[in-house]
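The data are quoted verbatim here:
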Amino acid sequence: MQFLDDSLHPENQEKVVITVAPYGPEWMPEDFPEDIPVTMAEHIEKAVECYDAGATVLHLHVRELDGKGSKRLSKFNELIAGVREAVPDMIIQVGGSISFAPENDGQAAKWLSDDTRHMLADLDPKPDQVTVAINTTQMNIMELLYPEYIEGTSLGNPLLGAAYSEMTVPAGPAWVAEHLRRLQASGIQPHFQLTGIHALETLQRLVRKGLYTGPLNLTWIGVGGGFEGPNPFNFMNFVQRVPQACTLTAESLLKNVLPFNMMALAMGLHPRCGNEDTIIGQHGQRFGSVDQVKQTVRVAKELGREIATGKEARQIYRIGTWYKDADETLAANGMLPNRTAGPIVPSAHGR
């Protein structure tokens, strides 16, 4: 992305699209019973509360009544239908992992099989987006979860912590290509969850080959443990490499969430919050998803940025937009065209 002298002025920035992830699949309800929904009615109510507070994108997971993450697509269908009826303008973004929580202490924490994740393209009603990872990557969410932050929670259980520390995100080339094919065939927009510049470069190559022909909505994930670490220089380097016409959301964890959201808001980018990312505030207190959204709105307003409505967020994300081929996709996302013959940019020496 390129920045002009007045790019940090709010009148020259997009309205803010706030993503909220209020279903915290890595936590158990007893870790934060005031905030983590269990029943379907509670799931839907949480979506409505977050929307009313200012969030226009709902990162969606769902639980069974025993509090464990659901792996049943029928439950996802039920929740999507309920949210769609309650807040029809909210963008529904299904988490592509489905549910990575282990069934029992000591079992592996893992994403479901490739075939099962492909079935997200068959959800009914269809979500607006499904998050898509690029490149198989270690996802050790425990690396930066310091003991004092998880003391007294389920992640303080050594067996559960060990299970999460060994988790990987399976997203090899064949799976990604097939997943993108199915999502596009179903008219569902991928939202790309990128773990670093290597993932961004792979995604750009996929676009150049014509394997994805839609808007590039990206999230940079700075959670460490195989993903980029929560270092501002990592984030700024990534921002610099992102094509001009993409949208970019910042995602981090625990006490890093607010600082990265503030950086994103200042630069005209977009924030993500919610109990999937943190259940504590900057002073170590329990901090729920709705309050996190309200805080994000306050910071945005202090910076002079307006909050996008649901309909405006759909326009910013270009929901429902597709392009005819690689060339049109490259142009629409602010990328250089594919090489034909000779240099893409004329050399100064040739004048």
